[in-house]
Amino acid sequence: MRIASLLSSATEIVYELGLDRRLVAISHECDWPPEALRLPRLSRVRFDPAGLTSGEIDAEVRRCMLEYGSVYEIDANALADARPDLVLTQAVCEVCAVPTASVHDAVRGLPAQPHVLSLDAHTLAEIIDSVAQVGAAAGEPEVGERTAAELRARVDRVRQAVEGRPRPRVLALEWLDPPFAPGHWIPEMIEIAGGDNLAGTIGGRSVEIPWASVEGLDPDHLLLAPCGYGLDQARDDAARARDRLHAIAPRAIAGGAAALGHSAWFSRSGPRVVAGIEALAAWLHPDAFPAANVDRAMDGIIEPWR
Questions:
Q1: 131 phi and psi, to 5 degrees?
Q2: Is the separation of the CB atoms in 167 and 195 below 8 Å?
Q3: What are the backbone angles phi and psi of residue 247, rounded to the nearest 5°?
Q4: How confident is the model at residue 299 (pLDDT cuts 50, 70, 90)?
Q5: In the prediction, which pLDDT does 295 show?
């Protein structure tokens, strides 16, 4: 079976399942694991985000949605050359990745119609279920179920480690210009890791919020994990919003309880969110869930910020 992925988290799922030899093409945003980067790209963004601030990116995204109805376009010729039997996509967020509707339009022109699997997770349970879904669609249901069970077991270990402990109040922001409260699984990640999430709804959409709505919250912990950003980009973005952030979270910042989060471990609906939960638990409750328990080093996932 030949698998094409138009979603970064789907690419990571394929590798988690050990099915990477079947992967024949990836999306413009896929960047993990490094071995996947040798594969042809099937999509591209309609503007160049390099060097743009988060406010400028937000403006470009809004322009593309208004003019084209999508931020991305699919390379029809590259898709035909890939000859996929299975195409992995999503319908959770039109801004974050190529939407399912665009994929269906693209595959109509192919001589052989591949199966299109849309991974539409809004909660942690649905993310883990999607791992099993990909395994089943690729003809490896037992591998999918076993891998999903291993991920659930890791989440359960975090829950058990922080159970009954005081829950620090956590304010997380998923974008800074304009500010967005996180939705979908990120509030759930915070709750599982032993925090009390202050903004955003489990299973709901990420929502733009005015700075005034979070003034006065003065959280115990502040997490800045702009969607699509690595730690370097998040650091630059936080520096531009420094005055605002110091105004809404003075205690957290002064007390060393503010941090940047690499969005690949938070915003992507793939197996790395489990390591993101482990890293959150080690950050919020280091005595109960030490960093040594995180699936990989804390470096690269969460970084202190002042």
A1: -60, -45
A2: yes
A3: -75, -35
A4: low
A5: 66
pLDDT at residue number 128: 97
Give DSSP secondary structure letters for 233-274: HHHHHHHHTHHHHHHH-HHHHHTT-EEEE-GGGTTS-STHHH
Strand 86-89 versus strand 3-5 pairing type? parallel
Distance CA 83, CA 3 (A): 9
Separation between Cα atoms, residue 229 and residue 7, nearest integer Å:
16
Kindly report, residue by residue over 158-169, the tens digit of the pLDDT: 999 999 999 999
Residue 137: how many CB atoms within 10 A of its CB?
A: 19
d(CA 194, CA 207): 23
* Mean pLDDT for the stretch of residues 182-205: 96
Find the mean pLDDT for residues 41-47.
83
Q: What is the predicted pLDDT for the residue at 96? A: 60
Residue carrying the six token digits 């709901």: 204
Residue 149 exposure: Cα atoms within 13 Å on the Cβ side: 6
The tokens for 50 are 């390099």
Q: What are the chain's domains?
A: 3-147 (3.40.50.1980), 168-304 (3.40.50.1980)
